Amino acid sequence: MTHQLNTLASHVAPSAGSVAPTAGKEYFPGVSALKYEGPDSQNPLAFKYYNANEMILGKPMKEWCRFAICWWHTFNGQMGRDPFSQDVTHIRAWDKDDSLQTYLERVHVAFEFFQKMGVEYYCFHDTDVAPQGDSLEEFQRNLDVVTDLMLQKQKETGIKLLWGTQNLFSNKRYKDGGATNPDLHVFSWAAAQTRKMIEITKKLGGENHVFWGGREGFSTPLNTDIRRELDHMAAFLKMALDHRNSIGADFQMLIEPKPREPCVHQYDYDAQTVMGFLNHYGLEKDFKLNIEPNHTTLAGHDYEHDLRMSSAYGMLGSVDCNAGQPYLGWDTDEFPSDPVKAMKCMLIIVQQGGIAPGGNNFDCKLRRESSDVEDLFIAHAGGMDCLARGLRAAGKLVESGLLQKTVEKRYASWNSPLGAKVERGEGNLTELEAHARQLGETTMQSGKQEFLEQNVTRFIQ
Description:
Blueprint: H1 4-8, E1 55-56, E2 59-60, H2 61-65, E3 67-70, H3 100-117, E4 121-125, H4 126-129, H5 136-157, E5 160-165, H6 184-203, E6 208-211, E7 217-218, H7 226-246, E8 252-255, E9 265-266, H8 271-280, E10 287-291, H9 293-298, H10 305-312, E11 316-320, H11 339-351, E12 360-362, H12 374-400, H13 402-410, H14 417-423, H15 429-439, H16 449-456
Parallel strand pairs: 3-4, 3-12, 4-5, 5-6, 6-8, 8-10, 10-11, 11-12
Antiparallel strand pairs: 1-2, 7-9
């Protein structure tokens, strides 16, 4: 399948030269680079818990967290909308129109914001950064122009691309999906966008590439060949992997689960569903998961559940660190603000030794009512502080040995020769029955759930 994406994406535009609007302009003149001032600070434009170079368990905080800012909720010119109004409330001086020049100016805006927030990474969809124009060729030319400027800004600032991805869900052509579309013509458009974005991810030195199937699913099974669509999605991912390899790239490939919205049922429902899919199609060694906790709660799980399940199998690759409202049935993409949930998430990252080459990307948007430009800084600083506070607590919890000792004691019987034999897959029912007869009736041991739930929170300060 090495060059099948090339065949499907037959309309690829040649590279275009860079075009830069007026450089040197300051877009946030009233905001200085945010600094760490400690938990007693009352300054809304300062960090209370995130101190980038402070060491936690042998690593600087910035390496545990690897924060990234997303382009789509921050610089796409469409924010402040909700399902009941398409009027934007986040009015920005640089959002003049839908011209290429406006998209180029947003690059300067974004990199100034990244620098003042003190983050080292960002991420984006193809349609976030360039106008789609009237044809595939025009769209790809626009992408070349804008990403030339993005590459220039990366070199100037040292800021890097955490991941790139392709938007295969917003355009009306993708109403029935991209990689699972019943129309081969649409499938080929999806291939074209994916091919181009894999090449752009490489061009920008991206460390990951994400696949989120917002419309890879169905609204009714009555008109859907489910198995055929899943086979097509696997073929699509294999072609994407082949194309990455064929151009000499080695960035991590990620799939982001979500159970529903906009589809009634999405094929990448949750972490275990995606891992099962990858194993079935022989892709488990080539893809990891990008987990969004707000998606996890939509699947009916606890906030950190999918991080835990994917990490248990070495499949946690990156995190869209946001939050939602459990009593709402849609993805609200709020900035994280609960330190207990943050501690549980960061504990999983600490226990697996880090999240690199992935990171914690703020797939979060300001509320419609938060219309001031400074709210962008306040919200991101609050989200970074929340996870940093969780990291501090997770580090202290690990150092205490509380959980490790409890778990080791609870599973101590499995350290016996018979337990080790079963874990190696060499046991049999007959010898286990003999073991049960020898020991007689079992004795109950407390799981100490309440003790642990009450004690872990004391590490949050």
